[in-house]
Amino acid sequence: MKIAIGGSAANPPHFGHRDLVGAVVATGEFEQVRWTVSGDRPDKPGMVASRVRWEMGKLLFADDNDVSVLYEADQAVPTVFVIENLKQCYPGVEIIWYCGADHFVPREQFDNKCDVLGFWNEGEYLFENQEFLIIPRKGIDMNVLQLPRNYKILDIEIPEISSTDIRNCIEQGKSVDIFTEDKIVEFILQKKLY
Questions:
Q1: 180 contacts 14 by C-beta, under 8 angstroms
Q2: Pick from 33, 96, 19: which is nearest to 70 by CA?
Q3: What is d(CA 82, CA 187) in angstroms, rounded to the nearest whole number?
Q4: 4, 122, 136, 157: most buried, per Cβ within 10 A?
Q5: Within 10 A of 178 (CB to CB), how many other CB atoms are there?
Q6: For residues 44 and 123, what is the distance between their CA atoms, to the nearest angstrom?
Q7: Digits of tens for pLDDT over the chain (194 positions)?
Q8: 192: in domain
Q9: DSSP letter, residue 120
């Protein structure tokens, strides 16, 4: 059995998230595909509560029975612990972490290490031991990535949509219905988010 798991702050969730996760499902390689809405993150202050972002995530995947939408209450759980938890719940199961190629770009702020090596908890361990499914991002040269020992590239193109841009549009009173589900737009307006 193989489980694919990935996640996002999803503040708010949008069509880019849906298409990325849908592409993972479409590979047909996994018995389970999970998408986790992160808890509070110190690198992203001011996010709405994870339960609220999870409710929007459920709306995003309402018509997709192949995806389990989960959330982390309170603080975000480091990837290494999410994976270890799954391994304990499903002994012997192959767990693949899927994420965007942007996590493997060397960054000056991390002494030219990528996010996984420079920022993630136990990133070096994950880099050596975890299997990754990497999704290309527009504008990222795949030749400059610091790639983990065990990885596969999912050759797809997903729309470049930014949750930050969506929040800015909402603040400015602009329409965001081209970026996310109508049900999510209604939810945002009803709850007066962003």
A1: yes
A2: 33
A3: 29
A4: 4
A5: 11
A6: 19
A7: 999 999 999 999 999 999 999 999 999 999 999 999 999 988 888 899 999 999 999 999 998 889 999 999 988 999 999 999 999 999 999 999 999 999 999 999 999 999 999 999 999 999 999 999 999 998 899 999 999 999 999 989 888 899 999 999 999 999 999 999 999 999 999 999 99
A8: no
A9: S
CA-CA distances (angstroms) from residue 74 to 39, 52, 55, 58, 93? 5, 12, 15, 18, 28
The pTM score is 0.93
DSSP β-ladder status, 94-100 and 2-8: parallel
Number of domains in the chain: 1
CA distance 136 to 98: 11
**Is residue 184 in a domain?**
no
Domain range for 30? 2-161
Residue 193 covered by a domain: no
Angle at 59 between CA 183 and CA 13, to 5 degrees: 90
The answer to whether residue 150 is domain-embedded is: yes
Assign residue 92 the CATH number of its domain.
3.40.50.620
